Amino acid sequence: MTPAKPAPAMVGSAAAAFIQRADGRVLLVHHAGTGYWVMPGGKTDDGPFGGETPRECCEREGLEETGVTVTAGRLLVVQWLPIGRNGAHAHNPFACHLFVFAATICPDALDQIQVPEDELLGWEWWDPAVAPVTPGVMDATNSRLLAAAVQVSSGAAPAPAYLEERPRPNHALNEGS
């Protein structure tokens, strides 16, 4: 008997903006759905000819989640997120490549940041060494992602960093959230 041929992978893309002020603090938004603080970002939009690129997604999501223009720069991190649960709180029906870009906001616009009330609970400039280790602030996936972005941005690690999330052992893929 011939083994079944594996189906083609269904993979999505997402992007996040690593926005760091001169004093080293990074912009994080408080996600209403999860209760955690994360870098501004989200999934790429579908569209003709493959939809938007991860860089375009970073800029669009940055604008949507801050209310100000975000300009994506160099690629800092690529993270592989498998099918199933990602960040221990959301069921993802497809695997996903998450791209984190160094991003900027015009200094004149910093006092104009506003988050969409239906999606986010607020925003704040966090010390990137404090946010990941403060209980209840960030989940493990986003803590690792922020740490990698800080390392690459500072020059302590080569760009881009590559991270992989692995499915938890004995995790049923069809398990609900």
UniProtKB/TrEMBL annotation:
Pfam families: NUDIX. Keywords: Hydrolase, Magnesium. Its cofactor is Mg(2+). The keyword Hydrolase applies. PROSITE patterns: NUDIX. The keyword Magnesium applies. Residues 10-152 form the Nudix hydrolase domain. InterPro entries: NUDIX_hydrolase-like_dom_sf, NUDIX_hydrolase_dom. This is Nudix hydrolase domain-containing protein. It comes from Streptomyces xanthochromogenes. The lineage of its organism: Bacteria, Bacillati, Actinomycetota, Actinomycetes, Kitasatosporales.
